[in-house]
Amino acid sequence: LTSTQPHRTPDPFRDGRSERMFEVSCRQERRYEVHMVDDVFAVDSRLAPLLAKRKTLAVTTPTVWSIYGQRLEALRSALGADLAVFVLEAGEGRKSMDMVLRICELCHEHELGRTDSLLSLGGGVCHDLVTVAASLVRRGIPHVSVPTTLVGQIDAGVGVKGAVNFRGSKSYLGCFAPPAKVLVDPAFLQTAPARTRTDGVAEIVKIGLIADANLIHLLQEPNSLLSCETPSTNRTQMVLWLAIRRILEQLSTNLFEDQTYQRLVDFGHTFSGQVEELSGYEISHGCAVAIDMALSAAISLTLGSLSNTGFQRILTLLKECSLPIYSPLLTVASCQGALRSAARHRGGHPNLVIPHRLGSGGFVTDLAILSDDVLADSIARVRTP
Amino acid sequence: LTSTQPHRTPDPFRDGRSERMFEVSCRQERRYEVHMVDDVFAVDSRLAPLLAKRKTLAVTTPTVWSIYGQRLEALRSALGADLAVFVLEAGEGRKSMDMVLRICELCHEHELGRTDSLLSLGGGVCHDLVTVAASLVRRGIPHVSVPTTLVGQIDAGVGVKGAVNFRGSKSYLGCFAPPAKVLVDPAFLQTAPARTRTDGVAEIVKIGLIADANLIHLLQEPNSLLSCETPSTNRTQMVLWLAIRRILEQLSTNLFEDQTYQRLVDFGHTFSGQVEELSGYEISHGCAVAIDMALSAAISLTLGSLSNTGFQRILTLLKECSLPIYSPLLTVASCQGALRSAARHRGGHPNLVIPHRLGSGGFVTDLAILSDDVLADSIARVRTP
Q1: Mutation site, A9, A11, A30, A33, interface B, largest B CB count within 10 A
Q2: Of B2, B3, B138, which Cα lies nearest the Cα of B57?
């Protein structure tokens, strides 16, 4: 029924040997360090040597700049660094190729060389734009990521993906471009907008449910990242770092999404796009992911892969995190549409991730198993749990 | 003085272990096949199964389309293939991000999925545009390369690089994106413009001089690729295939240019950009490369790394190939400018490639060795050889 064994994607373009054939083959080693740091703007921080040794173009947002601009300026002065700053209005609507090319234009104006660097100092959109620009300039220059939101710190800002929207399609153009370095400073979370915290918590729940029950336990304790107003305490940092480690462990086995179409990190990301879209983006990404996780858990229960106790624990957890578990936008038709779309993107199979028990998940690979009846039953379970 | 030992580029962004550090590490295996084929439009060709199995957007040029359009249409009909064709006006001036985004737009309109494919059927510019578009659409979709010019078949169209011009800078934006497959059909050379043949011959001479003396001998024989009007004979195909193999052997050791800044394939590509630019692009790329190779050989002679006999053989060869060996645009000042620019691009050293003996070359890594006197003496050797 379901499987946890990833299968390797075959290469449909290989013919095998022939007389006048040359096979070009190359192993590319990619590695980068993700550090949790204390005060990223300190003169002795890990950021300082990066700025001191090369020309840098920092890209940031008006909010981050208004709060931290002076500290970055002070660091530049102390180091005598060759640092230019571009403050861009972020937001999903500006995640466009125009903005990417504006960043490229500034790289050109500031004459960044192949070993000079871009720096993204902001949330997910800022990171996306910088990643795509860095991948294009001179066929790829380094970019350093300093994520300032929870979702950036545990998800968008620590991975290798960047993308922009194009002709009405979300993330249609993009790249896989590993950052040169990621510096996670939990202090930013004290000033990040509340909405971005909720989105981040949803992603922590996601990774906990499929990869580490302990992360879920820690999240539910008092003074956890979830409930704490000043998320820079030792306790909240511990949860944050554990979440980062678990997501990176998952990502690093399939960094370029070329090993398998079965990815546990897709949990909560099968129906959520549909929910976001149908709501006219009124429902945030994190809330849509929560609604998707609840439905996926219900499907797991319906298919006999999750106990009722396990299902109830997941619903309780989501509610404790102030996350929704249901939207009336979930209909059998909309869900079937989302599954077909997922199948197109995931090598012909929906590869729906469902939780088995706390900290472990599997895949539903066969569309036929996800019949209208199964979906209707499962939707009913989250509508009136 | 000079060295043939490549040195590995160090990673300046690595700190090493710390308590809260996660190192993301991933080996990416990239491979693709380059085939020499007999009739790429035949129903039983290697192209046919690629078109039959997936949706394809072919990008081609007016010239190629006028000559081969009917054959591609016939193949599409015979296969019942889902194939759309975009005929674009090529030329260096249209190697722009606008054209790349136009191709991306067509991918979107035709709803190409992650495993559907772009096909470039044209020369270097067409290949560049398709490579960059393919690298961006859905974070990378496959692209098949069918180069139709000599320089495309032995150089631009068989490698992994794509780029466009941006804000007046040649190839400023681009990517490393390996093709899914390359199909080289020598029949195209019969209809390719004469100018593209000269450019291709210059690149064959380049690879022969630094990597294989036998290729040079073959090129100088009667009825070789060089002199033959119908370059599809067995003899010309042999030279073509040997050149492709030698260039791919060189490229594949450093496919993403991240292993070393010392690349033998940069032979003829240190002063040539300056020559092209100063001539207002009146001097073609191939001719500029020939002028650069002659000067680099003269420098090798001046520095005692090449015999006078060797130097004269190289000049004779270039002349036999109808390639120039000198331009008055070569001055000590313009050459020093080109060397400084190369050093910026090659990790701080000019890494000038100079021929040692036929089929073997090395590097001048130290700018100081290339004094004004050395350059003046060497320029004099090609001005009045």
Answers
A1: A33
A2: B138
